[in-house]
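does this look right to u?? 5'-deoxyadenosine version
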Amino acid sequence: MAADSYHLTTFGCQMNEHDSERIDGLLESLGYEPAASAGEANLIVLNTCSIRESADRRLATQLGNAKRFKAARPGVTIAVGGCWAQSLKQEVFERYPFVDVAFGPGQVDQLEQFLVSDSQKAQGFFEFDGFTGELPMRARQDAQAWMQISVGCNQKCSYCIVPSTRGLEVSRPFADLLAEAETLVARGAREITLLGPNVKSYGRDLRPLRHTFSELLAAVDAVDGLERLRYTSPHPQDMNLDVVSAHVELESLCEHIHLPLQSGSSNVLKAMRRTYNRDRYLARVEMIRAAVPDISLTTDIIVGFPGETEADFEQTLSIVDEVQFDAAYTFLFSPRRETEAAKIEDGLVEPAVASERIGRLIEVVQSTADARAQRFVGRAVEVLVEGPSRTDPQRLRGRSRHNKPVNFDGIAQPGELVLVEIEAATSTSLSGHATLLASAQR
Ligand code: 5AD
Ligand code: SF4
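got this back:
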């Protein structure tokens, strides 16, 4: 077996085939040679698709195999690209901790960055679609589009790889973003999500004219034909009244805020260099709920940060109960290369303790999310149709403005907005039937 051997499996459509050709070319230019099978390769690449369930099942098998190969030969690197990775984003690492790097369609460059960096010990990173205007437009024809508004970050969260890999924050020019939003809508987008590591600080670096994030929201909201606007993620420190007011004033801006918490313990937040404490986070939540009482709040939480005691962890459990999040992504702390937290040696949390804690956290998250979801039962909510339901192809699937997946009975095309009367709700999804009611209760 060659020292640098790889095996690539491609699922899905022509676009993936094309990306795979580029991956082959890239790996060969880096000195990798094809292995006869995944079991013999040092690098296993799965270029995924999320169109059909049969592809999901094949992928599950391949992922299971890759995990076994890695258990037998710990040096193996596992990379997952394509639409399935894009749809799960960071959750890829949460659900499949043996995956080293994940990247979206058209992001073969991200794989290169990962492979040429000096350490593969640390878990990989996920970046959203590329930054400049050179993105392949072909991936941008659906009703939901993403727009990267900035890269890099001026914060110094001690666990985070973004400042070292992407450097200081650079905002894309205001006029470029508006032009891109108009193009996306002209091509059929009805919903746009603005992306950045710290969206709320957008525009501070723009010269000669600074623009605020709220101005950007207002300008994109005004694009004719745009129905829904979202953004992710704001740093809680910057989440102030102008953005919260935008949720009241701008019609397209959805009733959902993803506000990464990371920990409920002020001590741990301090060690993470998050620049807010428990009380300040709670004050932000209060301000948001005072302005938009029905808003959905979701969050990210890291469990097992070095130095996290049982008492600290209980503070996280209690804040989840207090805030009543609609959903939370939970992550086990993983030391990433070139981060301050990766160098901490004292107070490391045993893996068994960390996984026991994350299990308890997920239980609390699920029960609060379930309780919160019940408020939609009996309401008619607006749903942006995505396609057939994954669990029952006779039904349809879409997303509400509150960002809840909705499975429903009815007839509609992907990209249409329909009203769905909600009959049942769980922590992760709503279920109901399409209705002809004239007015939606958002
Ligand atoms: N370990 C665990 N989780 C992390 N995240 C970022 N870096 C790490 C890390 N080193 C999580 C944070 C962030 C989300 C995108 O990923 O919760 O909000
Ligand atoms: Fe910036 Fe977010 Fe990373 Fe903190 S966690 S450094 S805010 S990208």
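The first strand starts at residue 5 and ends at 10. idk if thats expected tbh
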